[in-house]
From TrEMBL:
This is 2,5-diketo-D-gluconate reductase A. Residues 20-263 form the NADP-dependent oxidoreductase domain. Keywords: NADP, Oxidoreductase. Its EC number is 1.1.1.346. Gene3D superfamilies: NADP-dependent oxidoreductase domain (3.20.20.100). It is an enzyme of class 1 (oxidoreductase). The keyword DNA damage does not apply. PROSITE patterns: ALDOKETO_REDUCTASE_1, ALDOKETO_REDUCTASE_2. InterPro entries: AKR, Aldo/ket_reductase_CS, NAD(P)_OxRdtase_dom_sf, NADP_OxRdtase_dom. Belongs to the aldo/keto reductase family. It holds the Pfam family Aldo_ket_red. GO terms for molecular function: oxidoreductase activity. The keyword NADP applies. The lineage of its organism: Bacteria, Bacillati, Actinomycetota, Actinomycetes, Micrococcales.
């Protein structure tokens, strides 16, 4: 167990979200309980999962087995793409609670806007109902471009608490981060390590050498110094531990600027305007 203090960031409704969490995309369902147990033992208290990952049950089993108090945990899940219709969203959320073995989640997100499907405003209506019922302490979106955000805010009541978007040194996504900030929406940076490839970037390796940290730690530190929330994923115990040890180092402004300058608009995942796959 670790006593490493994890800073929190206030959401727009006052709920505090731990700035460092643990991602679970691509963790196979049968491995999830053990991997999330390792993360909880290291000290992570914020877990990011999704209906699409098919591993909510394993996450829930690890949470239950940990014996940790519910109030000490922050659990996010996300609405799958097939369920943007109002009643489908409500039913899918009930299913998530059942799989997670929880009475509420801390954050529930629309996973993708699916612009060609054009039902995210309807889905948000369901999320607002869930929020008002207290079964999600906060609600937000993921992969929303500025036009999706503006349309949502023009047509609905609750401003999203977060927008979870792809951000890493090779994809600054600054325009979306700026619109998020303008509206008090916290940016969550997904694939914060660029899924591992950018860790061999010479600039990142040079800074890592200088500050006595690993490239992954330097990249995660860059994210938190910019104010974003991150949840690196790993199935490797040594890396799960490594990624947690980022609060005993401070990058200089020049180091942060050098990493920010690596932006080359390179995505590891789909562009939100082009992602319309409902899996049906
Ligand atoms: N909202 C969305 O649409 C969306 C999309 C993608 C991701 N996410 C969320 O964001 C989380 C993180 O993103 P991600 O999983 O795509 O990518 P990531 O966290 O940027 O990178 C994960 C990859 O990096 C490797 N890795 C982890 N720590 C490392 C270290 N210290 N040194 C070297 N390699 C390391 C992992 O390998 P091993 O596992 O083999 O150790 C894995 O291959 C996801 O798990 C998910 O919760 C959300």
């Amino acid at each position: 167990m670790s006593n490493e203090p994890i800073p929190t960031v206030p959401l727009n409704n006052g709920v505090a979200i731990p700035q460092l969490g643990f991602g679970t995309f691509k963790i196979p369902p049968e491995q999830t309980r053990d991997v999330v147990t390792t993360a909880l033992e290291v000290g992570y208290r914020h877990i990011d999962t999704a209906q699409m990952y098919r591993n909510e049950r394993g996450v829930g089993e690890a949470l239950a087995a940990s014996g940790l108090a519910r109030d000490d945990l922050f659990v996010t899940t996300k609405l799958n793409n097939a369920f943007h219709a109002h009643d489908d969203a409500l039913a899918a959320f009930d299913q998530s609670l059942e799989e997670l073995g929880l009475e509420h989640v801390d954050l529930f997100l629309i996973h993708w806007p699916l612009p060609a499907v054009d039902k995210y405003v309807e889905a948000w209506g369901a999320l607002e109902e869930i929020y008002r019922s207290g079964r999600a302490r906060a609600i937000g979106v993921s992969n929303f471009q500025p036009n999706h955000l503006r349309r949502l805010m023009d047509s609905t009541t609750v401003v999203p608490a977060v927008n979870q978007i792809e951000v890493h040194p090779w994809l600054g996504n600054e325009d979306v981060r700026a619109v998020n900030a303008e509206h008090g929406i916290v940016t969550e940076a997904w694939s914060p390590l660029g899924r591992g490839r950018l860790l061999e970037d010479p600039t990142i390796m040079r800074i890592a050498e200088n500050v006595g940290k690993t490239p992954a730690q330097v990249v995660l530190r860059w994210h938190v110094q910019r104010g974003d929330v991150v949840f690196p994923k790993s199935v490797t115990p040594a890396r799960i531990e490594e990624n947690f040890r980022i609060f005993d180092v401070e990058l200089s402004e020049a180091d942060v600027a050098d990493i920010t300058a690596l932006d080359r608009g390179e995505r590891t995942g789909s562009h939100p305007d082009e992602m319309n796959n409902t899996g049906r």
